[in-house]
Amino acid sequence: MTKLKYSLYEIVTVSLGLALLGFFGTLSFLPMEIHMMGEGHTIYWMFIFLSFSLITSFLLLSFLKQKYRFIITRIFDVAAIICLIFVIHAFLTFTQDLFEPWLVQVGWFLRYNGFIVGLFMGLVTIKTTMSLSTIISNFNDSEAKSSSENIKGDSENSKLPTMLILLLSFGFYIFAMLFYRYVSFFMLLTSIFIIEIGLILFSIMFLMNENYYNFVNSKFFDSPVLNLGENAIEAESKITKSESTKKLTNGGIISKINSKLMMVGTHPKEFWLLFIPLVLFLVFGIVTIILAPLDIIIHIAFPYEVGTMEYDMPLIQMFSIIMIILVFGSALFAMYGGRMYRRLIKYYKRKRSSFLKIFSFSLIDVLRFIGLFLVISQIVYFFEYPIYLPEIISYFLFCGMIGVGIYFLVASRPIIKKGLYATAISLLILNFYLIFKDGLANKVNSFSGEFDILFPFKFLHSWGNFLLVGIPIGFILSELFSDLVFKHTDGTDSMIRTAAITATPFLLGMILVPGNFLLNNPGGDPPLSDQTFFMFYLYCIALSIVLLVGLAFNYLVTEILIPIFIEKKPKWKKNIIKKNNPGKLSNARKKIRRKASPKKKVIGLSLTALVVVAFVGSFSIYYSFSQTYQRPILVHNPGNYLIWLQNSTERVTKDTTICTSTSPHIDAVELFMAKNEYAAFQLVWRPLGGSINSLTYQINDFEHQVSPYNISADNCSLRYIDFILEEEFPDILRPLTSLDLDKQENYVFWFDIRTPYDAVEGDYEGRLNFTFNGGQEEIITIRLHVWNFTIPNMRHLRTNIGSRSDDFDIIDNYIDHRMNDYGALIRAAPTLSDLNTTETYTCWLNTSSDTWTFNWTWWDSMVEYKLNHGMNGFSVPYPLRIEDRRDPYIENATRMLWLKNWLADVEGHLDDKNWLNYSYYYFIDEFSIFIPAPYTRQEYFNRCRILLSEMKNASPNIKIMTTTPPSEELELLRDYIDIYCPISNDRDKARWDERMEVDTEFWFYTCVGPTAPWPNSMIYDRLYATRVLLWQVWLYKVHGYLFWHSYMYYHGKYGIAFNGYGDGWFLYKQGGQLYDSLRWEMYLEGQEDYEYLWLLNATLQYLEENPGIISAGELNNYKAEFDAIVSSIVGERWVYCDHVSTLYSGRDRIGAILNNLGSVVNITALGEAQWFPPYKPGT
Q1: In angstroms, rounded to a whole number, what is the distance separating the alpha carbons of residues 1010 and 1016?
Q2: What is the CATH number of domain 633-790?
Q3: Beta-carbon count within 10 A of 712 CB
Q4: How far, CA to CA in Å, does 1019 sit from each of 41, 478, 724, 956?
Q5: How many distinct helices (H) and strands (E) make up the chain?
Q6: Which helix (H) or strand (E) holds 990?
Q7: Domain 798-1076 belongs to what topology?
Q8: Packing angle between helix 8-27 and helix 102-112, nearest 10 degrees?
Q9: 74 and 203 Cβ atoms separated by less than 8 Å
Q10: Could you read off the pLDDT of 47-71 as tens digits, one per residue?
């Protein structure tokens, strides 16, 4: 117990370190949608620093004496604390205008701040390995324990450390996960800072205890020169070589290194076993860092369904992942190889065959470790949807703590322990069966938009599952940890064991999410009834059971068969080692000084330095928080409520906290707007005491401060923001009638206003009156400045977001958001009579004559309504199919004739209506990605070329759009493609510009991809990224943007929509009502941003064409400033600003410039001048 008490600092340090490594390993790919793409990623620095730290700690432990290890561990602990302060500062700075939900906020922070977080992880790794090495050395002292204890069950010395380390590790990990999930990442980091400070303070203060001080002196400062345990006789025989051999080796560097190693208590053979590969990996890592600035990209293509998916991975990311895997793999095999050698070499003659047998046994031992590694990742996989992951892992580990306790009770009873190990394996096998049974019985595959689909399962969320997984895993991990730390070692191989053990939790956490992302079990996607999917599920459960059976087999060999057939019936080799011989050399120890006095001066100085670090760190953390988490406060009624202002382009979560002491207090909300513009802001109510009941509102008219002109309150609305996905993600905008604010959390309200087209420029003032609690009032003053220019009714961007609707609620909603849908369906009637009696039918096919009859009445009315309200692009959909599972019907003459006749007739009608310029035909979707069997890419493209040729011959003036890039392999199709619309991350500036230079129309699209860091409109994207998309359209000088759908209520994954994160789901139709989403509003604001850009560009062009209105110098300054604003907000490919304030500053400056120039240029006339899409087929 004395050792245990005096090793508490090391035990807690190791526990906290392992927990932090596991925690940040889990976060390194969480969520996968933010971390999957390699562009701009910095998380690889975590892998690099972890690798370098493992190498560094290996060298420190190999060459430093115990007394230096004691000091250096605490130095690195302090260094980690200082680094943590910088991590907290970086987090607060990065997220000062990123009040996103926890999953999104932390994911984006880690993506772009991998260097500082990686450095912190590296320091944690070093101090953890150093402390774990101390534990291994202290509790495996060869003077205190005999070699026979390495063969039997755990000694009493190892039981308590095993239990304490695992219990504390599990506890710290649970604490980290739950704080991350339910409190905030900032508070978690601050808590870690406090724990670390307290831990190092305890370590220094404990030195004032005389007994502990004597223990430290005896163990670390007066301690052994050499202690080689079981292999000491072998070492001594090497030391007493013949004089002739010494003469050959004395001058060699290897001999000097060996001598140095033995002087500090490191076994040379163990050292060289890992040193050589680590040197190679170190060189590999240095080369990786040198290559980093070159930004080399590796292009990877792999088959996906019926097509090919392409992935661009930065070379440094690939190398960093390879490096950490190699370092860990080398340490793992060196640890198990050395361990098995120590265990069995005494029972074999030193022959090549003996070494081969030992290697085989060590390989089985390694496979036991890897098998458990995979089993754990497979179990947690079933909760792939990351909203649940922190909670589920915490439940598993909580139950795992019970398993650790059970192991502690039976650790010294080998037979019972082995029986419980077999029981644990059996329970895990049973659990896999129950998981799949639950998944297949309670699956959901819903097309409803009425509710979120998360996990409808019963067993997966039950305590039965948590207990069946947690207890066995806790028991098995206890056996494994005790085995690795306290068996078959005398401490001289601790530098190898610590490297492997320390890296394990990080790598285990790291593989959870990407491994799960690639698979398709019931916990990730809703199970389908298709037989192929069912067989895949059976394959997965079989694989899981095979892993568990393999784990049981490896345990059988290493822990049962080897002790029975080898260790209990040894082939004793003479003069190798005697039982219970500690193997110490005659000069192995010096006399130990007793009753040493604590060096109070040194301790005092250390305490003073630590207090300074704690004070400076605490102050800097508070100062960073107070300077970054500020928002304008409108009302602060202490003890009752707080109302603060947030812009419209950031989400606000329920638990977001601002610093009220430093946030500015304002008396009014100020808006700067053009005429005919939509703008919004958010008001955040935070009850601080009692509830706020029956909150209602009234908006007054906005009165012009000079003229009698007013803006009616009818131009405004107030909605409250509803949360989705377990009430975590703000997205739905619902009308506000009356609301109770009865929880101590944020309630967010969305105020929007639309200025009239003919508004008078100048200053306005209005009021938003809140009434609550039976008569209490709060009045929010809103000051509005209307600029001297107008957002035109004419849309200058061809934006199509699917689909088509006959519902005028949806149609008018699109119009209000300056959005084109796909137009109107051209439906084929089953009979000629239906064509003439049912208005929604437009055509009928006479299969006898292969001709079409049309009734355009309904279709024309729908298209005219949309065109009259601003639509500038629509598709003309063929009512039949032109392909069979993507394979064109080019051999079917009849079908081809139907298509060509239909196209000719439609072209004639569009020409008569003068609508050809607005319309286009949407060709086979993404045909360059998905190649149907049995064709090669070139064969399939040739078939598409034949189809395109026939279509173009039939209707030369109907534009054909393809969702493909203008790539080299599609050059033969160029003559038939009028509109290119590739996915945004298929950006090739040279090829895009080349096609636009020859007057080809060009759009781009986004959909479920690209994922982060490319701007898109998913829930995991930063909200303003949706707005940035339209800035990127301007930067690329393309003519349109396309998204496949806005109300596709299909749950392809658990969560919202096809991908679980809102893909194709921007409008919520619930209870017969249509509700906008925050992301849908961002499309509107982004479209208006585009008009700002278009107007300024058109104005500057007008001034250039009409010299003398302003000076040439002033014009050039405006041009340069315009370019600088755009480049500060958006760049090529995935690059855009990390702070939404940059976007607002740029937009406001453009507005101010237009306001100034509005006095000399008729900007309204420029904006409303007739404008057509840039390319007209047939002209």
Answers
A1: 7
A2: 2.60.40.10
A3: 11
A4: 20, 40, 10, 41
A5: 34, 31
A6: helix 989-997
A7: TIM Barrel (3.20.20)
A8: 100
A9: yes
A10: 999 999 999 999 999 988 777 888 8
**Global pTM exceeds 0.85:** yes
Sequence-ordered list of residues with C-beta below 8 angstroms from that of 286, at least 6 positions apart, any chain: none
Any idea what DSSP says for residue 528?
P
Whole-angstrom distance, CA of residue 356 vs CA of residue 334: 15
Residue 640, CA distances (Å) to 133, 643, 690, 737, 771 in order: 54, 10, 6, 22, 15
CA trace torsion 375, 376, 382, 388 (10° rounding): 180
Per-domain residue ranges for the chain? 2-140+162-297+313-567, 633-790, 798-1076
Three-state secondary structure call for residue 1069:
strand
What is the β-pairing status of strands 710-711 and 729-735?
A: unpaired
838, exposed or middle or buried, with CB in 10 Å at 0-12, 13-18, 19+?
A: middle
Encoding tokens for residue 722? 């509803």
Residue 593 in this model has a pLDDT that exceeds 90: no
- CATH number for region 2-140+162-297+313-567: 1.20.1250
Structure tokens at 785: 């400045």
State both tokens at 385: 């949807």
What single-letter amino acid sits at 513?
A: V
Give the integer Cα–Cα distance in Å for 689 and 637: 10
Q: Could you tell me if 928 and 965 are in contact, meaning their C-beta atoms sit under 8 angstroms apart?
A: yes
Quick check: 1143 and 1086 in contact, CB under 8 A?
A: no
Give the angle 513-518-519 at the CA atoms, nearest 5°.
100
Taking alpha carbons only, the member of 911, 774, 931, 902 closest to residue 844 is 902
Strand, coil or helix: what is 571?
Answer: coil
**How far is Cα 555 from Cα 424, in angstroms, rounded to an integer?**
12
In the numeric block, which tokens belong to residue 801?
């977001």
Contact 130, 138 (CB under 8 A): no
Q: What is the pLDDT of residue 518?
A: 63
Q: Is the pLDDT of residue 913 over 80?
A: yes
What secondary structure letter does DSSP report for 597? Answer: P
